[in-house]
Here is the input.
Amino acid sequence: MTFLTALAQPEKLILDGATGTELNRRGVDTGLPLWSANALMNDRDAKILQQIHEDYLRAGADIITTNTFRTHRRALAPSGNAGRARELTHRAVEIARAAIANVPSDKPRFVAGSISTLEDCYRPDLVPSDDELLDEHSDRIVDLIECGVDLILVETINSIREAVIIARLATATGTPVVVSFVCDREGRILSGESLTDAAGVLLPLGISAIGVNCGPTPNLAKPLFELQVACLDARTSGHQFPLIAYGNIGYADDAVGWVNTDSENPKAYCEHASHWPAKIIGGCCGTTPEHITELKSALK
Ligand SMILES: [Zn+2]
Here is the structure.
């Protein structure tokens, strides 16, 4: 079954988007500038990464997210690894595929190739020029497509401009594309733009789902309801265009990347998540396999 076929089924899909922070919980160095890409630098950490993917699959994830959040040239450059973008991206996807092979199941599971902002995902003021965005995101998408990912997950995006450039490049490949934004407390994209405007320009590009991620769990309902209204699709006779939602637990930190807290235990997380009007629901930074287990039973 392809990802698009699964997306058309009535069942919700569960996504794991918390590999980076889970690496940190399991003792892998996730210090900046490499952050989660550290796990691809040696065999010991790569094994831990694969184990994390496997634990999420056993917990019930239908979609696992590749550890490619920071395997692009610009993120690798400060550590002297800019020339290794393709190699590390390929390695991350291979590890995700190996995890699926190691956890047999009778239901289909999918590998989402993760792409985020070129610069810091919480700093819309740093979004580079259109030329840089085109050039560098184009390389990232080529690297992911070469590996045969099932979908491209454009996540934690902070401006419409960068989202549109990535979505144009990604949809041109024919691989399904999901776009997810990071919002402020009021439900606006961090750039200050509205999700209604984002949906207005992104849906016509042929993306397969749109939504929000990496915001505090209690804050996600508001932007999701806005998207629900913005995406009512006349072409599908009033059926809801697929939305995606996965919240975080903890907070971003300039020095270490992310600080895990346990402010939302799995039950508390699911009290929010099970009400989100989204087709794909999961966990972002700071959530754990226990959150996915709880989510799976809550969504049944
Ligand atoms: Zn996150």
About this structure: The two ends are 21 Å apart (CA to CA). The longest helix spans residues 85-102. DSSP finds eleven helices and ten strands in the chain. Residues 156, 214, 248, 284-285 surround zinc ion (CB under 6 Å).
